[in-house]
């Protein structure tokens, strides 16, 4: 397999199953089993881009069943140096509104039993998670979103729950009291695995709801409501992704490629 098929990888979340039109589909065999879907290769300007829907193109894979290790390994195998992870997400704070975009800089892992490392055999390493997302890539993304006039939050902590169920009101109230802004089911272990393979991770959380409805004084979230809001904002997300990719500086100033030996 060529190591230079794409330099930027994108994982599509709920409602985001297609990105580019003129594509070539490839299937990558991995040491960790099957990927969620084929990798779709295309071009944006002079950048080679790889896209994969993390739930499969028919949304057939639940968040706790996604083979994150296979997906991330496949992106590395084809040459990706940066991985962008847009996702539908809920808000835990009233000022973070549906339709807003949050560029998360921290996560809290509330999942269980997910295979979340490549270093679990005879190659043990302990990788820092202090700064999980790439600062250089986040700055590029924030600058692009500001130029587009989007309602954004430059920082945020995403708590990642196991899924596929949504929270109880008690759970949602607890997470809100911690001061965390965003809730999602897929950011972990995806972001950490990207770091383990020395690629730059970026999260783009598109807020679709107010979780159990407490801080928004509204009805609890439903899958149908998430999909409706996401679909209404998909063109906005795609425009942002195009802008980010076009403005990525090939000269890295971050330390992401030294995360693991």
* Tally of discrete structural domains: 1
* CATH level-four homologous superfamily name: Nucleoside phosphorylase domain
Number of helices: 5
Q: Return the CATH architecture.
A: 3-Layer(aba) Sandwich
The secondary structure category is: alpha/beta
Using the CA coordinates, give the radius of gyration: 17 Å
Tell how many strands the DSSP assignment holds: 11
Assigned CATH class: Alpha Beta
What ranges have pLDDT less than 50 throughout 5 or more consecutive residues? none
Helix content: 25-40%
Described by the principal axes of the CA atoms, the overall outline is globular
- Output the CATH topology: Rossmann fold
Mean pLDDT: 93
Q: Approximately how much beta-strand content do the residues carry? A: 15-25%
Order of SSEs, N→C? Answer: EEEEHEEEHEEHEHEH
Quaternary state of the chains? single chain
Short account of what is shown:
By secondary structure, this protein is of the alpha/beta class. It has helices at 68-77, 135-148, 169-177, 187-196, 223-247, and strands at 8-12, 24-26, 39-44, 47-53, 82-91, 101-102, 106-110, 152-153, 157-161, 182-184, 200-209.
